[in-house]
Amino acid sequence: MAVAFRPPKRDVLQALRSLVYPGVGGSGSTCCRCPLGAKRYLLTNSIVKLKEFQHKKVAIACNLPGTKDALEVLIEMKNQDVKFSKDTYVLAFAICYKLNSPESFKVCTTLREEALIKGDILSRRASCFAVALALNQNHVEKATSIFSQIMNPESILCINLSLMIHIQSNMSKTLIEILKDATEGNVSKFVKKLKFSEEVLAKVREKVKDVPALLATFDELYGKLHINGQVTAYTLDALLCHTPKGLKSHMVHLNKRTVSRRTFQPLSQSLWAE
Fold it and tell me: Which GO terms describe its molecular function (predicted)?
C-alpha cells in the first residue's frame, strides 16, 4: 500500500530541473535531460569527488554563486536513483532555502514528503531549513507544521525560528511570554540559557511597537537578556548556515580514510556504502 501513495520521482526531478534550467523538460533519456554543454556528474567515475562534495553540503549551498551548481549535482543523483542520506537532505533543503522562490519551496516540500513516505530520517537541521524557507515564502502554517515535528527543539536555531513563527502569526503577547520565561526561568548558572538573535529581537520589537504596554515590557526584557548574555549578533541566516564543529572533524576523518568500513573495499569502488 505504501507504494501507491509514493509521489512519482519524475515530478521531483522535473521540479528540480526547472530551477536550474527553466524550460527544459523531463522526458527522454538521461543524456537528453541535460541541456547542451551541461557538465555531467557520472557517479561511476566520480564517486569519491561527489561524496566529498556532499560532505561540504551547507558550506556550498550557503554560497549563492555555487548554489545552482550544487543543485545540478542533486539532479544527477536523483537521475541515477542514488539514495539520499541525512546529509544530502540537508544539502537539498539548504539549496532550496537559498534559492528562496516558489519553485524551490515546492521542491523542498515534495522532497520532504517523499522522504517521510519512504521512512528516511530527516535531521533537525534539514527541518530547520525547511521551516525557514516556508517562513520566507509566507507559508506560516506549513512552517508551524514542520516545526512541530522537530524533536528536541531547544537549540539556539530552533528558539529563534520559533520566535519568527510567532512574529508572522501575529502572536505578540506570546512573544513577550517567551522572552519573559527566558529571562526568569534559568536561574542556575549550570543551566544553559536560551540565546536570541539581535536581528530576530529587532523584529519582535517591530511587532509590538504599536502596543505601549507590550513595548515597555519588551524593552525591559531586552535589557535583561543583554545583561544575562542571552543575545547573539548572529543573524538567523548565519545560524542556519553555521557548520557544526563535529561535522568538520568528521570531514577530516573522511579525507584520511581510503577503505570503506563496511565493505573493506577502496572508497573509489564503493557507491556510498556507508
Answer: RNA binding
Residues 146 and 169 in one domain: no
Q: Where does a domain end: 151, 174, 209?
A: 151
pLDDT digits (tens, 9 = 90+) for 189-247: 656 788 999 999 999 999 999 999 999 999 999 999 999 999 999 999 999 987 665 54
Contacts of 157 (CB under 8 A, 6+ apart): 125, 128, 236, 239, 240
Check whether residue 33 and residue 134 sit in a common domain: yes
Q: Domain range holding 122?
A: 1-151
In a domain, 264, yes or no: no
Of 265, 257, 261, the C-alpha closest to 52 is: 257
> What share of the chain has pLDDT > 90, as a percent?
43
SS3 272: coil
> Domain check: are 122 and 165 in the same one?
no
Which pLDDT score, from 0 to 100, does residue 274 have?
Answer: 45
Residue 259 φ/ψ, nearest 5 degrees: -125, 140
Identify the helix (H) or strand (E) that includes residue 231. Answer: strand 231-232
